[in-house]
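The record is kept unedited without comment:

——
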Amino acid sequence: MSKLFIVPTPVGNLGDFTYRAKEVLEEAGLILAEDTRTSAKLLQHYRIFTPCRAYHQFNEHKVCQSIVKELQQGVTMALITDAGTPAISDPGFLLVRACVENGIEVECLPGATAFVPALVQSGLPCERFAFEGFLPHQKGRNARIEQLKYQERTFVLYESPHRIAKTLQQLAQALGAERKACLCREISKVFAESHRGTLGELSEFYQQHEAKGEMVLVVEGASRPAYSYLYPRPALTADFILLARLPEAGLHLLLVERKQEPFARCHAFPGGFLEEEETLEWCAQRELREETGFRLKDWGLAPKAFRSYSDPGRDPRARTVTMVYYALLECDCLPQPQAGDDAAVARWFPIGQLPPLAFDHERIWREFAQEMLPDLL
């Protein structure tokens, strides 16, 4: 059966094209190009004479199904855009999805994309990041910027030169002028440069200087945990009640002492905010591992759901829902916890000698003890 190849093209220097990309374009029966005039320069440079057809954001809804039919009839195609990897803030997603739904094989070649070089050379943390693409031009723009205010990961935006001054000004006002950022323009081209500074400094610079070339903006994530702010949107968290039962010493509860303000030195269950594409159960286990070093699977344990909570005492607008999980460890001696992440200390406490608990954990523990401890003792 035929195949759809997704082929990255250079974002600047034509030398960034790969040997395999050239071979695929030469052997394909048809090249789908975002702009056939722009792609002609690349194809002529590498002496690729495969027929081209336009496939762009203005016609992709109309021609997608007809392309799928041609693929089903045995035509192998390659999809390219003007620069970079198709479907990354460019046309391509609709066609890839249609091919997958119709059982047509899709293969994306590794290659050029603008945001990866910008992210790496920014000097900002890049082990975890969020790619945001282009901000909405009008509807939903302010809401998206408000969400970015609370993004704890480094995030990446694409922007055009005639909107960059406005974007930098809005971000500086919403996120704070002191937030670090790096603006990369003309990546891989002769006049490529990276302009590092704060959002305030970059905003001031581009209010006074003309912007040229396509731009990638890399912005530092929020430096404080999301729970230290008034939550701008509904949030999901997961907490973990881990108990250990010793033959002669009875039940102990694992608690952490927070290190971040405004909850520094408060005791609480291990727990935190749900990340993208996580289940609550996975979140609870991850937070337990990150804050105490305890891995349930090392002890053959599985999390059990207790109850969900929404408490105005934690969030005045009652928009935060917490799911509580628990597990019981049978052991001869207590394993040594290792505090990490937002936990300054992780420690076992006999259930009869618990310190005051932060958040709504006092009530959660009271209800848990009343309903569950009789069966666990």
Observations:
- Residues 115-223 form a domain with the Methyltransferase, Cobalt-precorrin-4 Transmethylase; Domain 2 fold (CATH 3.30.950.10).
- The longest helix spans residues 361-376.
- The chain is about 30% helix and 25% strand.
- The chain has a mean pLDDT of 88.
